[in-house]
Design a protein that fits this description.
Layout (H helix, E strand, L loop, with lengths): L1 E2 L4 H12 L6 H22 L12 E6 L4 E6 L6 H8 L6 H8 L25 E9 L6 E6 L4 E7 L5 E8 L26 H12 L6 E10 L14 E9 L16 H12 L7 E7 L5 E7 L16 E5 L2 E7 L11 E5 L15 H25 L1 H21 L5 H4 L5 E3 L4 E3 L1 H6 L7 E6 L3 H6 L1 H8 L5 E3 L4 H8 L1 E8 L5 H12 L6 E10 L10 H13 L1 H11 L5 E4 L11 E6 L4 H9 L12 E6 L4 H11 L3 H18 L7 H10 L2
Parallel strand pairs: 2-8, 12-14, 17-18, 17-20, 21-23
Antiparallel strand pairs: 1-6, 2-3, 3-7, 4-5, 4-7, 5-6, 8-9, 10-11, 11-14, 12-13, 15-16, 15-18, 19-20, 22-23
Length: 683
């Protein structure tokens, strides 16, 4: 027996037990080696006129013997001599494929597509095999040789038999391992069932999953069923009989759809590939296919689904694109190729330039992955913008399915992604009664409006009737009605929206008149980027009141200071203060409303209370303000009660108005019994 070269036992043990995390990739590695062998022969035949190879006959064959517990991967490639078996298989981490690429670097082009790099893929066979036998006959040689090893100490090389050039790799599978007992009371460690690889279905599945786009046919004898011929003497009650038979079938597709020119592929073909590959029954909403050149060369085929998968927002959902290198799948879902807010996108990226690690399961250089991911992100954003502008109905359907993720993208990035994602958002316009973008909202604003107004809640119809909303609408300003729990958090992360190319606002009348004259004389109107604050109509001072309304509010505040103090005392720490409202200014409007001071609104407080940390001590609370409509008849009742010294009655009024305002906000009174008592007492 010959010993492995290098620190064989330790290195081989590392190859078998440490480098690879998934035993089933052994077939991918052996098929990749076979493809390289066929590619070498094909390339040599193109550069050497003395070699005569029929390219139509080049193929890879996979077979298994359940009784002998063997799996065989065969090719009719260039084969190996005894010396090459010694050099390539006896020296761990010596890559014959890499050496071949280096020797023929100046001649290579599309004619050769070598996969191997590290010279360790072959040894992955020992993850599942207790013995590996390689029988190979080099092209142009009359003799074959057999390399055999148990993957422990060494190997043997002896004469072998093979009818033609090429290589057979024969794996004798390990014995099944039973479950291993652990500590008492703990579940046993699962065993290993190697028999699962002795299955036609399993081998076909592994070929399709990992090697479906290897450029040469991968063939297997598969079992099929056919109806037997009807006997001539069969009676009328004859029932058809069926028989099984074996047929050689090509398992892989060979030519990946993403390598084809998009002009040569119909949308129906893309749809069929998407549905069969990603197990969806609906056509994709959009298909994005492109080829990138430069420092990194790669092909990408991306799909925006037509519907959201049922588990999209669950913790078990896995994002990512399938990553291929030289048509061999490296990772089924490479999460680093997609940002979280585009986690719904499915597709494939194929590049020969990415630097794979030794197991070919991940990448060595993250910067390469990041460069591809940035390009993909821009492509997706561009496609969504085109859908928004060219097919609004389709985009609104898309946004209904996936809009929450875009909003989370802004929130989770603390607003850093607002510029990229902000223009993709849609919100319901209370004024227009339809979904609008922030840009469309800004374009429709009346002159002088300096902010974008929104209201947050769980029901659009209820929001539209809230006093804080109707008050803003009455002044001619639109309000965005936000009904998803992430909406307000998104707006707070954004802080402002930059409306591009808006008509310029002039500070004084003279400048305005000069600009109007210039436009009348044929000049283009001046445009500017306007920074619009995002304001919740239920928080802070909106500064919408006219000078007369502000003056009336100030006078009412001074005149009825004692009333407000008494109501604040009656309400206690439920409110920060009681004040005259500048939002509610008409007799027909609500008598009171609840607003908040500070960054936390009532809706955000409701969302936090529904979250997993609701029971945590110190959960922030809103700073509530009870605003009174000084022009409402109820206000006069309050004034009369205060002047008459009816402290108890005033307290009931204050509690009733506060609870009523909460109900309008969709919040139950803190003490429903007290609310009912106050209603009855004042009837």
């Amino acid at each position: 027996m010959r010993k492995f070269k290098t620190e064989s036992k330790k290195l081989l043990d590392l190859m078998i037990n440490s480098i690879y995390t998934n035993k089933e990739i052994f077939l991918r590695e052996l098929i990749s080696n076979a493809s390289d062998a066929v590619d070498k022969l094909n390339f040599k035949s193109l550069t050497d006129d003395s070699m005569h190879v029929d390219q139509g006959d080049l193929a890879i064959r996979v077979s298994f013997d359940r009784d002998a517990r063997t799996i065989t991967v065969s090719d009719n490639g260039i084969g190996m001599t005894a010396e090459e078996l010694e050099k390539n298989l006896g020296t761990i981490a010596h890559s014959g494929s890499q050496e071949f690429k280096a020797e023929n670097a100046e001649h290579q082009g599309d004619a050769v597509d070598i996969i191997g790099q590290f010279g360790v893929g072959f040894y992955s066979a020992f993850m599942v095999a207790k013995r590996v036998r390689v029988v190979s006959r080099a092209y142009g040689q009359d003799e074959a040789h057999a390399w055999e090893s148990d993957g422990l100490e060494g190997y043997t090389i002896e004469p072998g038999e093979r009818a033609e050039h090429g290589t057979d790799v024969i794996l004798t599978l390990r014995d099944n391992e039973p479950a291993k007992p652990t500590q008492p009371g703990e579940p046993a460690e699962p065993g290993e069932n190697y028999d699962r690889f002795l299955s036609e279905w399993t081998l076909k599945d592994l070929i399709k999953r990992y090697s479906n786009y290897v450029r040469y046919p991968i063939q297997m004898m598969v079992t099929k069923t056919r109806e037997k011929p009807k006997p001539e003497d069969a009676g009328d009650d004859y029932q058809p009989e069926y028989e099984e038979y074996q047929e050689l079938e090509t398992i892989n597709s060979m030519t990946p759809i993403w390598k084809k020119r998009s002009d040569d592929v119909s949308q129906e073909d893309y749809n069929e590939f998407y549905k069969s590959t990603f197990h969806d029954f609906e056509d994709p909403a959009r298909t994005i296919s492109f080829h990138a050149e430069g420092t990194l060369e790669y092909d990408a085929l991306l799909f925006i689904p037509g519907r959201a998968p049922f588990d999209l927002y669950s913790k078990d959902y896995e994002k990512g694109l399938a990553l291929y290198s030289s048509n061999v799948m490296i990772m089924e879902k490479c999460a680093d190729l997609l940002p979280d807010y585009y986690n719904f996108v499915r597709g494939v990226v194929d590049s020969e330039d990415v630097s794979l690690n030794i197991s070919r399961e991940t990448l060595q250089h993250d910067r390469q992955l990041h460069a591809i991911a940035r390009r993909i992100e821009k492509k997706i954003t561009s496609e969504l913008e085109a859908m928004r502008d060219d097919d609004r109905a389709a985009y609104e359907t898309f946004f209904e399915n996936f809009g929450r993720g875009l909003k989370f993208g802004i929130y989770n990035s603390y607003g850093a992604k607002a510029a990229e994602l902000g223009d993709l958002l849609l919100f319901w316009s209370a004024k227009e009664q339809k979904l609008v973008t922030l840009a469309e909202y800004a374009a429709a604003m009346p002159e002088g409006q300096k902010a974008i107004y929104y209201a947050a809640g769980d029901d659009r119809e209820r929001l539209a009737k809230m006093p804080v909303v109707t008050g803003v609408l009455a002044r001619g300003y639109d309000v965005l009605l936000c009904t998803q729990d992430v909406d307000e958090f998104t707006f707070q992360a954004m802080r402002e929206y930059v409306a591009r190319d808006m008509p310029k606002v002039y500070e004084d009348e003279a400048a305005r008149e000069a600009a109007a004259k210039a436009v009348a004389d044929g000049a283009e109107p001046e445009l500017e980027d306007r920074h619009l604050e995002l304001k919740n109509v239920a928080t802070g001072d909106l500064d919408l009141a006219t000078e007369d309304e502000k003056k009336q509010a100030e006078e009412a505040t001074k005149e009825h200071g004692d009333l407000f103090a008494a109501m604040k005392e009656a309400l206690g720490d439920r409110v920060e203060k009681v004040t005259v409202s500048s939002r509610l200014v008409g007799e027909d409007e609500a008598p009171a409303c609840i607003t908040t001071e500070g960054p936390l609104s009532l809706e955000m407080e409701k969302v936090l209370k529904r979250g997993p940390e609701a029971e945590v001590a110190g959960l922030p609370k809103t700073q509530r303000v009870l605003e009174l409509n000084a022009q409402h008849p109820v206000f006069q009742k309050l004034v009369a009660a205060q002047e008459a010294g009816e402290t108890e009655k005033l307290g009931r009024y204050a509690g009733l108005l506060y609870d009523q305002a909460l109900l309008v906000e969709g919040i139950l009174p803190e003490d429903p019994v007290a609310f009912a008592t106050n209603v009855c007492a004042l009837m």
